[in-house]
Every structure is written in structure tokens, then in C-alpha cells.
Design a protein that fits this description.
The protein has 159 residues and is mainly beta. It is 13% helix and 35% strand. The protein has a five-stranded antiparallel β-sheet with strand order 1-2-10-5-8, with no helix packed on it. It is globular and about 85 Å long. The mean pLDDT is 88.
Length: 159
């Protein structure tokens, strides 16, 4: 009988300890003095699902001097930029999909190189490139220093 009481008392004690340790844990909002966040539903995108690409500014303003972080969605369907360059380096992480990149002033989507999800790419300032999506949607995170202008640089074929 003593053995039964001891085992039962031990089981109840363990259950009470678990409840005390974990029972009062609840989800709460983080202290805004410590961090800020945006859930996917709160991210504001430019453009529409039918445009070739969309952009959401997470930090800074790409049109102004200083650090910026943007998300860029390229929609599937052979949506690609034409050859261009930016004044400053840009650091790009492929979050999802396969992003296709090409270099030089001649626009040739067939010669682009696939960058699968997880790839990290640096676009060096003042260097001509083009990029986009082919058969699947692509999500990129782009980090750079503004202003992030884009200068067309396509070499048109002779007529």
C-alpha cells in the first residue's frame, strides 16, 4: 500500500511541476522597444499579381540615401528585366523559386544562369546585368545602399 501511495504521490507531483513550469506560458507580443516585425499578411506590395514583378520595402527607402531592404517577387512567365545597371552594389538572396541572371548589354534570356532558392548574388555597382523569372515565381530579398536607381544599358541589334 505504501508503494502505491508513493508512486501516486510522485506522479501527481511530477504533473503539478509540469503544469507550474509550462502551464503559465502563453504567447504574447514582443516588447516594441526590443524588436519590430511584420507578418506576411502585413507586408505591403506594390504592383499586382498580373504585373511582371512586385516589390515591398521592409527597411529604408531605396529612392533615398542609406540602407534599404526590399522583397521582390518576379512572377513566372518569362518576366525579365532588360539590361541595366545600378550605381551601388546590391546583395540578393533567393528565398524561393529559381531566379535567372544574365550579364552584359545584349539581352539573351536563353543564356541566363539559374540561381535556385538559397543562392546569394552580388550585383556590383555600374555593371550591366538582367534577370527575372521563367517557369516559376521567385521571391528575392535585396539589400543595398540608396539611392537605388536603374540605368538602361541594352545594346540594340543593328537594323
Amino acid at each position: 500500500m505504501l508503494r502505491f501511495i508513493t508512486r501516486r504521490t510522485l506522479s501527481v507531483t511530477v504533473m503539478l511541476m509540469v503544469f507550474v513550469c509550462f502551464g503559465f506560458i502563453t504567447a504574447s507580443e514582443p516588447d516594441p522597444k526590443v524588436l519590430s516585425f511584420k507578418l506576411p499578411k502585413d507586408i505591403k506590395w506594390s504592383g499586382t499579381e498580373t504585373s511582371p514583378s512586385q516589390q515591398a520595402v521592409l527597411v529604408g527607402d531605396p529612392a533615398k540615401e542609406g540602407l534599404y531592404v526590399v522583397l521582390t517577387k518576379w512572377h513566372k512567365g518569362n518576366n525579365m528585366s532588360r539590361p541595366h545597371f545600378h550605381p551601388n552594389d546590391r546583395f540578393i538572396t533567393v528565398i524561393s523559386g529559381t531566379w535567372w541572371v544574365g550579364t552584359g548589354p545584349k539581352f539573351d534570356p536563353d543564356s541566363t544562369t539559374p540561381m535556385p532558392a538559397g543562392s546569394f548574388v552580388t550585383h556590383f555597382g555600374k555593371q550591366i546585368h538582367y534577370d527575372g523569372a521563367k517557369d516559376e515565381d521567385v521571391l528575392l530579398q535585396i539589400v543595398g545602399m540608396g539611392p537605388a536607381t536603374s540605368t538602361p544599358a541594352e545594346q540594340k541589334p543593328p537594323e
